[in-house]
Design goal:
mainly beta; 118 residues; three-stranded antiparallel beta sheet; Immunoglobulin-like; single chain
């Protein structure tokens, strides 16, 4: 609350009061993903909550973003009062390529016309 008193040159005075409201609540964003990336799951959806507008690292302004690379992604959430906060989510990659082996009991010859593959 602020008060101002004004006094005129003839000695009369008057007082006025005003209260300044505060709307400085900072958003509390969250960021999640439905990963990890795998050989069969080649994209992951990032999801943010907690604000009015969203701005993702690497671009994107929706609450969700689809990515195809592992890494840490940051979203800045801005509430209607202009206050901002950030949240991060890390997309993992779980790609273990199998190591196949193949053998046979060859070679094929004029008398051995088939082989067994294992």
């Amino acid at each position: 609350t602020y008060t101002v008193t004004v006094t005129s040159t003839d000695g009369c005075s008057a007082t006025a009061t005003t209260t300044v409201a505060q709307n400085i609540t900072v958003p509390t964003p969250t960021a999640t993903n439905d990963g990890p990336l795998t050989c069969t799951k080649t994209s992951v959806t990032l999801t943010a909550t907690g604000g009015g507008t969203y701005a993702w690292s690497g671009g994107g302004t929706a609450a969700t973003k689809i990515v195809t690379a592992p890494g840490t992604y940051t979203v800045t959430v801005t509430s209607t009062n202009g206050c901002s906060a950030t949240a991060t989510t890390t997309v993992a990659q779980n790609i273990t390529v199998p190591t196949p082996t193949a053998t046979n009991d060859g070679p094929l010859t004029c008398t051995k016309t088939s082989v067994t593959l294992t």
